[in-house]
Amino acid sequence: MLNFEKLSKVYFSPSGTTEKIVNEVAKNFNMNRENYDLLSFDEEKTFSDELVIFGIPVFDGRIPKLACKRLSKMKGNNTKAIVILNYGNMDYGDALLELTDLLKENDFQIVGVATTVSQNSLFSQLGRNRPDEKDMEKINEFSKNVIEKLKNNEENEIFVSGYKPYSAYRTPPFSVNCDEDLCVECLDCVYTCPEEAIMENTPTMTNIDDCTRCSTCINVCSEGARSFSGDAYSQEMESAVENYLDRQEAQFYF
Ligand SMILES: Cc1cc2nc3c(=O)[nH]c(=O)nc-3n(C[C@H](O)[C@H](O)[C@H](O)COP(=O)(O)O)c2cc1C
Ligand code: SF4
Ligand code: SF4
User: Pocket of ligand 3, candidates 39, 178, 214, 228: which has the most ligand atoms within 8 Å of its Cβ, to mutate?
Assistant: First the structure.
């Protein structure tokens, strides 16, 4: 029996794959659940007698700046945590170190770490249709190993790869475009953009200085009106496909 009051899921998931993996891990735990979606949740929060699953994607070798800012407000109290770092079949740079450093500083005791691979939200040819069945099998095996570790009260510090200072933030040089002919002005993108980069009176425009290219609006638009496009996008995509098409596998740390 695991002795936790509940299971809390904390995730930042603009294109939904990180949330999907967090939910797959959570399925293995028979406990009451609570959700903290960092695309919108922006409050101070202290966790205590619960198990927390954190799921964060990689943006240019770092964790997304906004996710980092919101995660910084979440404190543990020697609270046990499972960490999922999800990336798009390229590489994860310093993001794993950054994420585990932040959680350790905020008094979480990390009991298991997974670096998982999903369809790339910028370049869909990379990791297409992942996580797939094989990924989910591994993710469930990982969850069972974490459960065993928790049952046996095993405690150890988990060390991961990465360098400090972390690599500099980089925003992709291309932008998000909106096809005016497809847009029906439903405003879903306006209300879900975590950076408030789309205005109610001009939903087909994007404030390029505020936009982090996170992909939330592209995924939320039921009309398929929003997309990454343009010459800079085509060039980056070509280079990504040339270098990162080979299948990467999830890795696990206990
Ligand atoms: C702005 C941006 C930068 C990204 N940078 C990387 C990267 O450095 N390496 C990588 O493998 N994938 C990268 N990706 C892909 C995401 O990490 C990947 O698609 C992840 O599954 C997205 O999670 P989500 O579906 O929860 O949004 C990037 C995606 C975005 C939007
Ligand atoms: S979600 Fe799509 S259809 Fe709705 S306002 Fe935004 S771009 Fe237009
Ligand atoms: S406008 Fe930019 S920041 Fe806002 S949801 Fe779209 S991609 Fe993300």
Answer: 214
Tokens 């070509």 -> residue: 238
d(CA 17, CA 215): 12
Mutate to test the pocket of ligand 3, among 216, 218, 220, 227 (most ligand atoms within 8 A of CB): 216
- Distance of CA 50 from the midpoint of ligand 3 (Å): 33
Answer yes or no: do 80 and 11 share one domain.
yes
pLDDT of residue 3: 86
Say which ligand is closest to the CA of 187.
Answer: 2
CB atoms within 10 A of CB 48: 10
Same domain? 188 vs 222: yes
Evaluate whether 38 touches 70 at the Cβ level (below 8 Å): yes
Q: Are residues 39 and 68 in the same domain?
A: yes
The amino acid occupying position 105 is E
In a shared domain, residues 114 and 211: no
The total domain count for the chain is 2
| Confidence at residue 20, expressed as pLDDT on a 0 to 100 scale | 98
**Is residue 192 located within the same domain as residue 155?**
no
Q: What is the DSSP secondary structure assignment for residue 178, as one 8-state letter?
A: E
- Distance (angstroms) between ligand 1 centre and the Cα of 170 equals 12
Q: What is the pLDDT of residues 6-43, one digit of tens each?
A: 999 999 999 999 999 999 999 999 999 999 999 999 99
Residue at 239 is within a domain: no
pLDDT in tens, 89-145: 999 999 999 999 999 999 999 999 999 999 999 999 999 999 999 999 999 999 999
pLDDT at 100: 98
| Domain span holding position 183 | 175-229
- Whether 15 is in the pocket of ligand 3, judged by its Cβ within 6 Å, is no
